[in-house]
Each structure stands twice: as C-alpha cells, then as structure tokens.
Amino acid sequence: MTFQKPIKIAITAMGGQGGGVLSTWIVKLAEQAGYITQYTSVPGVAQRTGATVYYVEIFPGIDDGKTAQKPVLAMMPVPGDVDVVLSAEMMEAGRALQRGFVSGRTTLIASSHRVYSIYEKIAMGDGRGEHGDIIETGQRVAKRFICFDMDVAAQSVGSVISSVLFGALAGSGALPFSRQAFEDTIRAGGKAVESNLAGFELGFSGAHDGASEEQDEDINQSEIGDVSPKVADLLLRMRDDFPPTTHGIIKEGLKRVVDYQDNDYGHLYLDRLQEFAELDKQHGGDRRVWRLTKDVARYLALAMSYEDTIRVAELKVRDTRFDRVREEIRAEQDQYFHITEFFHPRIQEICDILPAGLGAAIMNGFWKDRLGRFLTKGRRITTSKLPGFLLLYFVSSWKFMRRSSYRYALEEKRIAGWIDAIKNACSEDYILACELAGLQRLIKGYGETHERGLRNYHIIMDSYQSLQSGENANQIVIDLKDTALRDEDGEALNKAIASLAERSEAA
Amino acid sequence: MAERSFAKEVQELKIGKGEEFRGEGILAVTKALLQSGVSYVGGYQGAPISHLMDVLSDAEEILEELGVHFEASANEGAAAAMLAASVNYPLRGAVTWKSTVGTNVASDALASVASSGVMGGSLIVVGEDYGEGSSIMQERSHAFAMKSQIWLLDPRPNLESIVEMVEKGFELSEASNTPVMLEMRIRACHVYGSFMAKDNVAPVFKLRDAMENPTRDYGRVVLPPSNFVHEIEKIDRRWPAAVEYIKSQQLNEFLGGTRGDVGIIVQGGMYNTLIRALELAGLSDSFGNTDIPLYCLNVTYPLIEDEVKGFCLDKKAVLMVEEGQPEYLEHNINSILRNADIQTKVVGKEVLPRAGEYTGQVLLEGVRAFMETYSSPRVKDDTDILISALTSEESNSLNENVPLRPVGFCTGCPERPVFSAMKLVQKELGDIHVSCDIGCHLFSILPPFDIGNTTMGYGLGWSGASAFNTESDKRTISIMGDGGFWHNGLVSGVGNAVFNKNDNILVIIDNGYSSATGGQDLLSSRADNKTKSTKHKIEKAIRGLGVKWVRRVHTYRIATMMDTLRDALTTSEKGPKVIIAQAECMLNKQRREKPIRNKLIKEGKRIVRERFGVDPDTCTGDHSCIRLSGCPSLTIKDNPDPLREDPVAHVNNDCVGCGVCGEVSHAAVLCPSFYRADIVYNPSVWDHLSSRMRSGIIHVLQNRRRKKRSQLAFGD
Predict the structure, then answer these.
(1) What pLDDT does residue B550 have?
(2) Residue B574 lies inside a defined structural domain of this protein
(3) What domain range is B370 assigned to?
(4) Would you call A98 and B134 a contact, using CB atoms and an 8 Å cutoff?
(5) Which residues pair with B299 in a beta bridge?
(6) Which of A94, A294, A491, A496 is the most exposed, having the fewest neighbouring CB atoms within 10 Å of its CB?
(7) Position B477 in a domain
(8) Distance from CA of A506 to the nearest CA of B (A)
C-alpha cells in the first residue's frame, strides 16, 4: 500500500541569510495551491551568524479546516527522507550532505559562493576549507544538483539570496507548482517585489538552463599589449636563460621588482635567479618541473619587494588604486568620496627609509627612545585631499634613495643568508631547498606581525642548521612552518623546536 | 523597540469566532490567552518565547481594550510573583519565560504560589530551549513541576492542540487550585500552522475590582501553620481534583489501534516525531493511522494511574518515549505498574538514548529496536532509510572541510571592540581571569577572542568571580550586559561587590537593549518608549550603591578602552571598579537610522556615508586584523597577487562603517591596508569647488606616475 506523503524541504543557511523569508514563500505558495503546510526552525542564538536549518513540509490535499483528517507533519528532517535541500552557501550544502539530508531522491539546490567561518578567517595562512569534494559528492549523491553563485546573481540585481534560491527551486521543477504561482507569491509578499522578481528570474534561468555545476571562470587571457623597450631586455634574458615552464612566474616576479624599484633591480633579480636555475639543472630540475627555480622566483620577488613606507605610500597614491576603491565602495562614477588611511609609523619605519648609516645610528643608539616617544600615536591621513596626498607622494618619491637605505641593507643581508641556505641544502636534499625557499612565506605584514614572522623564520632557519636532521629534514621544515602558521604567540613553535632538540640529543 | 516588529501579526489577534488563525505556535498561545479571558500577562524574554513578549508588547492597544495588563517583568522571579494576584481573586493570569534558566530564577515565587494555591487560573508558559540550537544547560522543566506540584502540560505540537491546552490549562488550574505549566519545545514555538479562532474574552472580574475590594485569607499565606496545611491539601484535595479533571476532559489521548501486545506511551510534544518514525518504519500512514496502540500524554505531570494501568494491562511491553533525563515518567510508570502488580515491561532508555534530543532518526532507531525485540510477531524493518548515502571517503572529506560555524557578534557590533581591547591588554599584562555573563557579549568566549572562563547565569557575571577577592598581584575582570545588570546584576553583582569590599573590575556592556533576546527595551534604554519608563542611567544606579571608581567609555574607542582597563587593573585604589562600555546595539541602530538616511538622500540632503575597505596590494594575508575583530563583514578573498598564496583580508558590502577596523589597526600597530571611505551624497557647492581644485593637482601628479609606469610595461 502506498500512502500519500508530504514533500519535505530543508533549508540550510546561516542566521540572517533570509531562510525564514524563503520558508514563508514556500509555505504561502503551497497554501495557495491548497496544500496543507507546516514550517518550523530553531533560530535561537544561530540568528547571530550561526548555522541553522529551516524545515518545511507541504502535503497535497484540501485543507477545509473541518472534515478531512489532517496529516501529522514532522518538526525536523530525518536523514535520507528529504525531497529538496536548499543551501544558501557552499559549506552549508556540505553540512546538509554531512547530516545525511541529501539522498538519491533529493534535489539539492545550492549557492556556490563562500561565506568563510571565523575558523577559516583567523588562520595565519590559508585556512579555507576545500569545497571541490562537496560539489563532487553532491553530484554523485543527489538526484539533481543545481549549483551556481547565487550571491553574485542576487547582488547583480540588488536582491537577496533567498529570491534567487526561490527562483532556482521553481526552475528545478522539484515542486508541482507553475512559475506563475511562484512569482505571484513574491508579488503577494508586497516587499521589494521588483528586485525579488529579478533575483527570482536569475535563479530560475540558472536552474532551468542546466547550470549543474560551478561555471568555470573565464581564464583571463589578457591581451598582449606592447612590451615597453625598457623592459624588453629583461624578457629576452628570461626567454634565453630559463626553461619555458618557469616563464610565467618569473615574469610576475620581474613585473613586481621592476615596479617596486627599476630596471636594474630586475636584472639583479635575474642574476640571482640564474644561479638557481643552473643549480636546479644540476640536480635534475627538468624531471622535477623546475620546482626550485619556480619557488625561488616567487619568493625572491617577494623578498626583494619588502613593504616599506615608500612602497605603501606609492601604492596608496596611484590612480589605479583610486579607481579600485571607487569600485569597491560602489560609488557612482561622478560621486565624491574621500579615502582616509590609518598609519602607525614607529621609529623603525622612519629609520627604514633613512640612509643606512643614519638609520643604524638611530636604531642602535640613544636617539631611538627619545624620538620614538613622538611616534606612539596612530595617524590618519586623507589621501584624497591635498595635504595627505602630497605627503604620501613625497614619501613615495624617496624610491630613488631606497637602495642606500637602512632597511635595504638589512634585507640584502637576510636575502644573502637565505640564498646561501638554499644552495647549501640543495646539494643534499632538493625538496629541503625548496622548503627553505618557502620559509619566505612566513615573513609578512607590518609592525609586530612582521617581527613575529621574521622571528619564526629565523628560529626555523637556525634550528634546521643546528639540528642537521639528515633524511627527514625537509619534513621537519614543512612541519615547523605549519606550526609557525598555527599559533600567534609562538608557543607551539617553541615547543616543537624544544622537542626536536631533545630528540636529536637522545639520538 | 524589539528586533522584530509584530505590528502586522498583532492584527491577527483581533480575529473572532469562525475565522482561521494562521501563524507561529507562540502567537497561537497569545491568541489562546486572549480567548481565555486573562486579566494579566507577564514574563521575561528569551528564545524561544521572545516573540510572545514582543507580540504582547506590540499589542498593548488590543490588550487595553480587553482590560488586560501586560508587564515586561524585570526578571522571571518578578513574573512568577505576579501570579500572586490569582491567589485571592478569580483572576486569570499567565506568565512566560525561557526554560529551564528562567524557571530557575522563578522557582522561589513559583514554589510559594504553588503552596498557597490559586483561585484564578494561573498558566506558566515555558519555552523549552532543549536540543539543536540551544544555548543553555540541558535540563528538564519537569523537575520543577514535580517538586512544587505544578501540573505540567505537554501538548501535541500542532496549533489546535496547543490552543486547546491553553484553554483547558486555565480550567484545570481553577478546578484544582493549582498553577499549571505549559511546556513548549523550541520547534513548537516556531511552528507555522493554523487553527479556528474564537472571540477574545474580556475578564468579567477585573484587576481594579480586586484592588478596590481586597479580600484576604490567612489560610493562603505561606507561614505556619498554613504551610503545613498546604502540603496536605496538595495531596488530599488538589491532586485528586486535577486527576478528576484530566480524566473527565480526556486531556490525554488514546490514539492508534488496538492490535498486538505492545504499545507506545509518548509525551504530547514528541507525538509528531514519533508518527514520522512509525511512518518511516512502515507502521503508520501520514495521518497517524497506526495499528499500534498509542497513549499520548498531553499532561505529563501528574500521571493518571488508572489510564496508565488500563493501557498497559494487556500488553507485554510498552515503549516510553520520554525526551531528556532523568527519566521521571519511566520511573513513575514502573512504580505504578509494580504497585498494581502488572508485569508489563516498560522500555524507555533501554532502546532510546539516555540523553540528548529525540530527533526523527533517534526515534526511528528506537522504534525499530523496540518492535524487533518486544513485538510478536517481530517486526523487522529493513528499508534503507538512515543508511548513509556517503562513502566513508566522502564522509571524511566533509568532516575535514565543512567548518564549524560558531555564533558571533554582528557586523559593526559595539561589543566587539571591548574584547579587542581586552585581548590587547592581556597581551601586555598577561592573561586575566574573566567571569562572563549571559548576553551577546558571551560570544567573547568563542573565537577570535577566546576570552572568558565561566558563565554562571544572567546577571551573575560579577558574583561568578566573587571568590577571587583576596590579596593578589592580578585583578579579575567580570562582564555583564545591561540586560543582565537590570535582571539581577545590580544586586547580585554590584551590591554584593560593594558590601564585600571587592577590589576587582566589572565591565558593563551598555548597548541600550536586551540584545541577545531580540532587542527589547530596558530601564536604561536611551529610546523613548510609549508604555515603559526608560533613560534611567546605569551609572547613577551604581554610584547610588556606593561604587566610587566608575568610568564611562565609548566602546569604539579602543585606545581609551585599553587605557581604562589598564588603569583599573593596576591602580592602587582599593574597592570595586566599574567600567561602563557604552554604544548602541548596531542592529537596532541600523534599523532606526538606515531608513532615515535613505529618505534624506532621496530628499536631496547632503549625507556622508562611511565604510571601510582593505587595499589588497598592501595586505599580506596574515589576518591579525581578523583575529582582533571577527566582524562578519571583515572577511577574506583570493589574493589577487599571483606571487602570494594566502588570501587577503576584505571588507564586504555589509560594512556599516563602525570604525573598529581602523581603531584596531591603530591600537595594535597592525597594518596600513585599511582605509575609510567617506561617500558623499548630494554634494554641496563647496564639495564641487574643492573637489575641482584638488583633483586638478592630484590628476597631474598621478598621470606623471602613470606615464612612468607605462614605460616599464610588460605587455599585459
């Protein structure tokens, strides 16, 4: 015997994503068609950005309120017993899969965009979860999987994601209601009808046109324009002296260092890199897709373009930056806006750009504290107004002095040490050499953040040398790097180093 | 003004006989109260019954017409004490709160009113925050009913049953002179459904009738010898009267069929989940038609012995579906059967989990186990429902990649910077013992702040650290919201600290509302409220209690907050120290200001809107800023720089321009990547003039640089 059964719909979302609105639309839609409906949720504290589930059941049958026996509808989804799952974010679709809501009879409709959780955001490196597997699993498990970026779609018409999901639900054909009935529900709601209908339209066509997976992003094959004669010699050198597979990253590196300083600096970059290309060749680089050359190309460019006040000022006053801000804040083409920067220059940052002798004299002497006293406060500088703009413009003009500055000397010394370490390691262990090159990734940020990164970098460099760990040295460096990126206070790294030292003593 | 306005829904409360009411469970309760002729309603907000309070507060006009007094009580104790009005007079009253936390606070007054007994029907609506989404300790309200002998209703979770139980609850209360508790599970509170309405009833005997003609009966006062009499009365008179009423009105339901030698006893609130489990096991249809006999307890305390015995007598075993622990019902039924020498086996926690929410999955597994073991012939259900569709590899990958999503502060929340400042001060002075309270500020315990050791209850933040009042090189910090402060903290926290010469620190987060429960107004709210008296300053109250060291700091001023905290932690001055951290709840502020701003922009007034941003080319992807802020609008995105691997910080369009990003990067000496953009709407003549002057010069200089850069172009 087969019974009439309700259609079960679960919505997985974060508090504040409009799951309540979407549920209400579905309820009203079904009620209009004479269905008996029930909807419930457990918002509670999840309203404050947590993950939550909204649950709707709709039952075919006339609800005349009196004679007919009413169905008993459930308060929560049972794994394996859900017909439609709507997820307002990619990882929430993952959570629906995880909780077993998606089975072979489920239509899964999800937005492919990401809203990162606090755990993903606070990582010192890249803590983002992988969602490739979720898409694959969804495609394998669900009866049908509709997935596209509904956030972008919603924003493009000034609507919210619930309208796009509602449209995709209509487009999926998972519910026995006409498109007209869906749209009438939005109209009857009476709120933001036009933008909601526009969002609905995008959702409907997204589902209907069979967008069953994330669309590949257009690979930005930017047009090749003219290479300026000034840098042509750099590119020629690159082509002649380096294997083709490395050209992509080397070109990015060249762009960076030339933009950072000048043409000569580009040649210095290539000079240094060339030594590694040769070393790489000696150690079978062609079999290893030239990893060492590529890694050094990446990290050397970053090391040579360290962030000093000159660099920051230069980037802040660029016309391209002003345009980017306009786009980001969504100001109209002719709308005025002002940009205020939050700087906190300390005596270190000032000395960084002074001539090496003077900078060193201040930093190592009695003036450091005296002058430092005047530099304890943050400064706000409005770059879009003349005084601020001119100040930053002036600072950025000091670029011509950079290569004789105090900081430059420090960085050169460190880069030299880094290069030596990689070279030495390479003769014994190719992977280790690559990993040592990659330690540059630890050095980032400004102020205390930069100091912490630099400290961790030195701790690992020093310990690897003193431990002489032999065969598994590359793994040790990988682990230490991960540890350094896991813990802000540096305690985990200290512990790891201490336990390594113990082990090597015991051995 | 509360977070959600019910101005529209409130109109539904006016509908009369023969009309269909559609809405949430908790609104149905409100309508049922009005249909029952209540004279007064009180309570304290908290999920899942906040909406009941918000609806009543938005419905004051309708209530006035009916002569119903509504009170937003100071706390649950105050609400419970309201029921005293029904002790001497035929006045129906209802009170409501979140349980079990609210019932804990209310239990003093509840025990008293239960001892005195009531003349007018008294209903306590408790919103049971148990299971998924709950933010409190997992306990049962059942224990409170048992200890004070208050009858406990647990209706089936559909609007008709709920409404009927409210109405019958008042009658039961009057028939047995006992307050009655109506237990509403969280999903039942939020369930959307319908029922046929009746007319609202204005109370015949009014509050003013009682005030103008007071009567008094010493026999109803909890003092000797009446208190001894009350205990006997409960057993000899009130209990039997209740049993009689429950039986005669058939509040409990015998559902299902008559087949077989097994049956199921179920709490009313679990009925729908049970039916779904039976349906999935092939033992019921969608309408709840099943051959298995069901005994549905819409009244879970007291149990009706005759009914229990009658149901069990011809059965080999019964399944007791009772959510939560201890399993009071199972114990009770066992004892009834043993006393009557009935050998039916009571199976409850044997096949169902001892603890935790009874979801459809849990009940399905329990029902399967029960039917397989005890039913004859055995019923074996081998449908593949519940068998995971995922491979173990897929499962592992999901477990690894799907992140937890703890709750957190909203975008622009004024409480966040307080904890940014505390985190920075801890970096200087070492870790501090922090005692937390209840409220949004409790999110400080979660990442990215990880601040807070314990939380003892609403308004108990400072008392939670009161043991640490001894000679020490470090002080403790306690946190309390304005909600907790007025709920209980004024006395239990501040009064207690003054009296005991506490030398530690209290930070009061004064954002103007009871925010965590939905933004209701408080004594110290700065807003005008038509029906309540607001604008009573916390500082005045604290000084009145005798605290000398009081500082008020605007929460968004992180540097000032750090200085104040440092001062409080290190000053040689003895005595309690209170920092009042003030700034309005951003949710409420936006709700108020955004429409006004949009209107002014439309009218052509010059408006400047602020928001923040991050320059991706100077951001190096360390995310220190996020670890000190955690604002939802401060997020990450792919690094546009092909050389860098870590994602950059990014401010999305939800930014409300609160300024904390800039303050944090200043205070923590972080990074020059943040910028504030001031966007001008409807520019003035001066805007046009000054912009023309500026941009002329700026463009010339920018173009010069651009030309230079173009000489170094790499062809893309």
Answers:
(1) 98
(2) yes
(3) 253-374
(4) no
(5) B153
(6) A491
(7) yes
(8) 34
Name the DSSP class of B647: P
Quick one: how many helices (H) and strands (E) in chain A? 23, 8
List, in order, residues 6 or more apart from B175 with CB less than 8 Å away.
B241, B242, B244, B245
Nearest residue of chain A to residue B659 (CA atoms): A342
Kindly determine whether residue A94 and residue B398, on different chains, have CB atoms separated by under 8 Å: yes
Q: Which residue has the tokens 């750090």?
A: B562
For residues B159 and B272, membership in a common domain is answered with no
Q: Hey, is A55 helix, strand or coil? A: strand
Instruction: Output DSSP code: residue B490.
Output: I
**The residue type at A232:** A
Q: Give me the phi and psi of A224, to 5 degrees please.
A: -80, 120
List of domains in chain A: 7-208 (3.40.920.10), 309-404 (no CATH)
Both tokens of residue B639? 């690094």
Q: Which residue of B has its CA nearest to A326?
A: B677
User: B89 to chain A nearest CA, in Å?
Assistant: 37
Confidence of residue A2 (pLDDT cuts 50, 70, 90): very low
Query: Please, are residues B261 and B300 in contact by the beta-carbon 8 Å criterion?
Result: no
The pLDDT assigned to B259 comes to: 80
Helix (H, G, I), strand (E, B) or coil at B362: helix
Does residue B558 sit within a domain?
Answer: yes
Backbone angles phi, psi at B655, to 5 degrees: -55, 130
Residue B269 and residue B243 share a domain = no
Q: Are residues B105 and B159 in the same domain?
A: yes
For residue B137, is pLDDT > 50? yes
The total number of structural domains that make up chain B: 4
Residue A60, SS3 per DSSP: coil
The first and second tokens of residue A434, run together, are: 């690559």
Examine the domain organization and report whether B186 and B233 are in the same domain. Answer: yes
E-strand ranges in B615-658 read 634-637, 648-651
Name which of B558, B462, B578 is nearest B510 in CA terms: B578
Question: What residue of A is the nearest CA neighbor of B688?
Answer: A336
Q: How far is A119 from chain B (nearest CA, A)?
A: 7
Question: Among residues B248, B268, B299, which one ends one of the domains?
Answer: B248
- B622 domain-assigned: yes
Q: Residues B657, B619: one domain?
A: yes
Q: Would you say residue A223 has pLDDT above 70?
A: no
Q: How far is A65 from chain B (nearest CA, A)?
A: 8
Testing the interface with A: which of B643, B655, B663, B707 to mutate, by most A Cβ within 10 A?
Answer: B643
CATH of residue B514's domain is 3.40.50.970
Q: What is the ipTM of this complex?
A: 0.94
Under 8 Å CB-to-CB from B32, ≥6 apart: which residues? B162, B163, B166, B167
The reply to whether residue B157 touches residue A346, judged by beta carbons under 8 angstroms, is no
Cα B645–B647–B653 angle (5° rounding)?
Answer: 155
B306 shares a domain with B212: no
Chain A positions in Cβ-Cβ contact with residue B280 (cut-off 8 Å):
78, 81
Q: What is the pLDDT of residues A302-321, one digit of tens each?
A: 999 999 999 999 999 999 99
List the single residue in A78, A325, A337 with the smallest CB-CB distance to B276.
Answer: A78
Q: CB–CB of B151/B145 below 8 Å? A: yes
Whole-prediction pTM? 0.93
Cβ proximity of B272 and B157 under 8 Å = yes
User: For B469-521, what is each residue's pLDDT tens digit?
Assistant: 999 999 999 999 999 999 999 999 999 999 999 999 999 999 999 888 888 99
Interface test with A, best of B401, B638, B654 (most A CBs within 10 A): B401
Mind telling me how many Å the CA of B648 is from chain A's nearest CA? 9
**B617 & B654 share domain:** yes
- CB contact burial B440-457 (16+ within 10 A = b; e otherwise): bbbbbbbbbbebbeebbb
Q: How many CB pairs under 8 A join A and B?
A: 390
Contact criterion met (CB < 8 Å) for A78 and B186: no
| CA angle at A405 for the pair A402 and A411, rounded to the nearest 5° | 90
Q: Residues B55, B177: one domain?
A: yes
